[in-house]
Glycosyltransferase
Amino acid sequence: MSNPNETKPFIPHIAILTSSGMGHLTPSFRLAALLANNNCLVTFVTTHLTVSLAESNSISSFLSTFPQIISRNFTVLPLDPTSVNSTDPFFLQWETIRRSAHLLSPLLASSSPPLTTLVTDMMLASSFVPATADLCLPNYILFTSSAKMCSLFAYFPTAIAAYDSNEKPDIFSNGIHINDSLTIPKSWLPPPLLDPTHLFATQFVANGKQIIESAGILINTFEGLETESLQSLNRGNIVKGLPQMIPVGPLAPCDFERGQGLPWLDNQPDNSVVYVSFGSRTSMSREQIKELGNGLLTSGYKFLWVVKDKKVDKDDEDGVEEIVGHEFIEKAKDKGLVVKTWVDQVGILSHQAVGGFVTHCGWNSVVEAALCGVPMLAWPQGGDQKINANVVESRGLGLWVESWGWGGGELVKAEEIGTKIRELMINERFKIEAAHVKEKANNANKNVRALINQGL
Ligand code: UDP
Ligand code: UDP
């Protein structure tokens, strides 16, 4: 991103184009803040129409905390939802933005001072990398999941090219064999990928193909967490000709993300509390919520549980008591805190009272737990989360009970949940490894700042 021919101090002007969902917005904010705090001018491009309240609230907070960041609103064209094979509002929003790509170039071309670099969210690569080619700017991809997931993302178009519905009805039966040391089992694949006509699958293939044309891939991970995957990607062992992977993680949280604190947590002993959350867009069945609640009670540990009843927060109308039941609230009185609001997750994970995290393994959650040195019980619910759970387990940061399957599958019983939580909280090896990775995370964070100051 540096310009060696400039004699005047060179200030890069970087446009960041984000997509939809907190799992994508949050790392975009953090990257924007990192660049803006390290001598770059940043233009942040959003669509004002968001799926969730969490997204619109955080965009407003982000922009008001960073008045030096230029905000550009990108008006998208409406999408006919019957024209695509998915009803997931976040996937539909990605598609809506993708199909409006041709409208972005004129908006960016009018930037003043002129842009020097673009950064495009991974879910928009297929249409925005070509649509902005006329601007002749280096276009980097922001990859918001793990390097292991990036290996699948980059390789999957090759695998799918072999698809022949007549002769090979199940090309996935032996998993995706990427190279001699990496095969992704079929059961780990994001479920929508198993149907090549699914909107998610078509986006995944198109985006995966396109990243090869980008200037580089900024990824929210770090050497100390995913050494091997980063090496394989950068040595051409996954896909030949893949641009450089630039680990920029762990992307540090911005000040505006800080919450007010939880006095309940302040009163708990060190390492005594299990934090339970499944991210911003995963809801569980009431039946599974009941088992989880009872599992927490039988674990014998105190807990802080963020309950989510609906995928999109605007639809989440029932109160916490209605969801978990009055009986549970009574039993949990001295044992835990159950909330149904947006919480400051990094604030919680970095609190000394928290000793373990039951997580769906959304990649941001994994990186945040790594940054805070908190061991995890991985309970993947969908998407890239089994691949991320494998990273957690193989890095020694916690445990994953593979037989629990995806969320919405077989009911996982309270007793088993309680047993695994005890294993998580007791195991000293997880604590030692998590402390070790935390140290590496903090060092990686310093290195990224230095890298940006040198012009990436
Ligand atoms: N998050 C939060 N408070 C909440 C729920 C989520 O701060 O109450 C944040 C969490 O810290 C993470 C992001 O939202 O940064 C969720 O991203 P992740 O990749 O973990 O999961 P997703 O929500 O995309 O499934
Ligand atoms: N994903 C991916 N490549 C794609 C589409 C999605 O790696 O082309 C990942 C994405 O980061 C996401 C998961 O697969 O975590 C499934 O999407 P989801 O809607 O859960 O997004 P999230 O909000 O969790 O990032």
In short: Residues 212 and 241 are 7 Å apart (CA to CA). The mean pLDDT is 93. Residues 261-441 form a domain with the Rossmann fold fold (CATH 3.40.50.2000). The two ends are 6 Å apart (CA to CA).
